[in-house]
Amino acid sequence: MSLSDYLIPFLAAFLLTAAFTPLLRRYLVTRKIGLAIPRERDVHTRPLPKLGGVAVVASFLIVVVAILFTDPSRLSFVSETVAGIDRNLAGVLLGVLILLGTGIYDDLHDLKPGVKLGWQVLAALLVVAFGVKIHWLTNPLGGATIELGSWTYLIVPLWLLAMINVMNWFDGLDGLASGLSIIASIAIVFLSLEPFVAQPGTALLAAILAGAALGFLPYNWHPSRIILGDSGSMVLGFMLGVFAIISGAKFATAALVLGIPIFDAVWVVGRRLLTGQPVWKADKLHLHHRFLDAGLSPRATALTLYAVATLCAVVALNSGTAGKVAAIAALAAFMVLLGVVLVLSAGRRAKG
Questions:
Q1: Which of 99, 97, 92 is nearest to 244 (CA)?
Q2: What is the mean pLDDT of residues 59-75?
C-alpha cells in the first residue's frame, strides 16, 4: 500500500472526530448529561462533559467499517473470517464495543470497580477466543525465541487488562491520554511497516486511531472543553495493547513507547499497596500531579510528557530487542529519579 492508503483513513478519522466532538459536547452540556463535577484531585475547575471518547471511538469504527465495506483485504490478519470480517479483527471490534458500552455506563453511573473489571476481562477474553495469540517472544539476552504455547491464553488477557487500566488511570490531565495515544499509534504505524514486521493491516488500524485521537485533542487541550472519559481511555489502552500483539508481539517496543503511563501505574499501585490503600482508590499520586505540585502548568506538563514519549518512540524504532530492554531500564531509573526530584521540589514549594 502507498502512503495515501494510510493518510486518507487517518484524515477521515481526524475530520470525523473534529466534527463530532463539538456537536457531542453541545448536546451533553445542553441536556446536562455525563458532566464531571470537579473533585479535589481533578485539574479542571468547572463541570465538563466526560463522554468525549464516544466521538473518538465512533469515528474510529466508522472508518474501519467503511474500509471493510470497500476493501476488506486491507484489514486481513488471518485466513479465517466471521460474517465476512477477519476473525482476529472481529474479536477486537467486539472488545471495543464492550469497552465503549462499559465506559459510557461508568461515565454516567459510576460502575463498581469489580463490575467494570469483569467487563474488561470479557473484552480481553473475546480477543483470545477470536484467535489473537502470542506464539513466541524474542529473548532479550539473545539465542532462541521463547515459545509461549498455552501460556498465551493467560498472557494476552493480562496484557490487555493492564493496558486498559494503565491508560484509564493516566487520563487525569487535559490532553494527556489522547496525546500519548497519538504518539504511540504513530510509532506503531512505522513499526508495522518495517520489512521484518510487515503488518500493513496493523499500520492501517493504528493510523485510523491516531487520526481519531488527533481530531479530539484540540477540544481536550487545556483548558479542556470535554473529557475523554472511560468510554475513550479504556478503548485507547485496549487498542494500543492489541497493536503490540498483532504487530508481532513487540512488547519491548510497546513497553518503551508507553513507558510513561506504565511506570506511572506501577508507581501509584505500588505506593497504594505499601500504604494499605485500595488499588482502585483515586488519589493525587500520579506523575502529572507531581509535575503540577512542582509548579508546572497543565500545558507544560503535557508537553514535557509528550517530549519524553516521543523520545522513547524514536529509541524504540531504532533499537534491537536488547537495546530496547536497556532503554526500558534507563527509563525506569529516570522515572524514579524524576519522581524523587518532583516530590522534593513540591515539598520546598509547599514550605514557601
A1: 92
A2: 96
Given this model, what pLDDT does residue 45 score?
66
Range of the domain at 189: 4-351
Q: What is the DSSP letter of 204?
A: H
How many independent structural domains does the chain possess? 1
Grid coordinates representing 195?
A: 520489512
Residues 30, 346: Cα–Cα separation, whole Å = 39
Strand (E) positions, the chain? 35-36, 48-49, 81-82, 85-86, 136-137, 146-147
Q: Do the Cβ atoms of 167 and 179 come closer than 8 Å?
A: no
The Cα 42–Cα 225 span in angstroms is: 14
The answer to whether residues 213 and 291 touch, using CB atoms and an 8 Å cutoff, is no
pLDDT at position 324: 59
**Distance, CA of 298 to CA of 288 (rounded, Å):** 8
- State the Cα–Cα distance between residues 330 and 307, nearest whole angstrom: 16
CA distance 226 to 25: 7
Number of Cα atoms under 13 Å in the Cβ half of residue 210: 22
**144 is written with which cell numbers?**
532462541
Put residue 198 in one of left, alpha, beta given phi > 0 → left and psi -120 to 50 → alpha.
left
Residue 333 has what pLDDT? 67
CA distances (Å), origin 278, targets 48, 91, 272, 323: 27, 32, 7, 36
Can you read off the three cell numbers belonging to residue 9? 483513513
One-letter amino acid identity for 6? Y
Distance CA 248, CA 240 (A): 13
The pTM for the full model equals 0.90
**CA–CA dist 228, 212 (Å, integer):** 12
3-state DSSP: the chain helix, strand, coil percent, rounded to 5? 70, 5, 25
Beta-bridged to residue 146, according to DSSP, are 137
